[in-house]
Every structure is written in C-alpha cells, then in structure tokens.
Amino acid sequence: MPRSVNAVASKARRKRVMKLAKGYFGRRKNVWTVAKNAVEKGLTYAYRDRKVKKRDFRKLWIQRINAGARLQGMSYSQFMGNVKKSNIELNRKVLADLAMNHPAAFEAVVKKVSK
Question: Which domains are present in the chain?
Fold first, then answer.
C-alpha cells in the first residue's frame, strides 16, 4: 500500500506559520525550521506580555495617583483608604487620568475623601 500524506494540510500549516513570520529579519522570515521556532517564541511572548501589560499599567496608575495625592499633602495609601471608606466608585485608571489631566477635579476628590 502506498504511503499516504496530506500534502494540502501540511502546506497550509507551513503557509500559515510563514505568514506570521513575515517581517522578521534574515532566515527567520523564509526558512521553515527557523521561522517556526521564531513564531512559536513570538506567540509565547505575546501571550505572556498581555498579562504583563496589565501589571505595567496598574503600576503607572498608582505612580500618577501617588504624585497627585502628595501634591495635596496625602500619601497614596491614605488616599486610597479614604476613597474606599467614602464609597467613591472611581477606579485607579480614572483617578490617574484625573490626577494627570484634570488637577482641579482630582483636588476636589481629595478634599471630599479627606473630610
């Protein structure tokens, strides 16, 4: 019995990986084995860094809120504790935006929670 290979599916699979490798430098873009490894590693980094991006933004928001709160004479932890106690439903993203782009509004929030 002759050997049966599904060349159509194999070629489609290679074509899909080579399309993902488009834009890579050197042999990474046009040699199958090198491109396959590069694409696998790239997809692994993409998966991991979608989670890291969330951490990085949270850190940035905390730094911005801290800077804005300290201009009003309050530390970040005191400010966030008072925000939770006074049942203000603003998340860190919104508070950081207020601290950066609307200092007067952020100052009003700080005054409301410090009472």
Answer: 50-115 (1.10.1900.20)
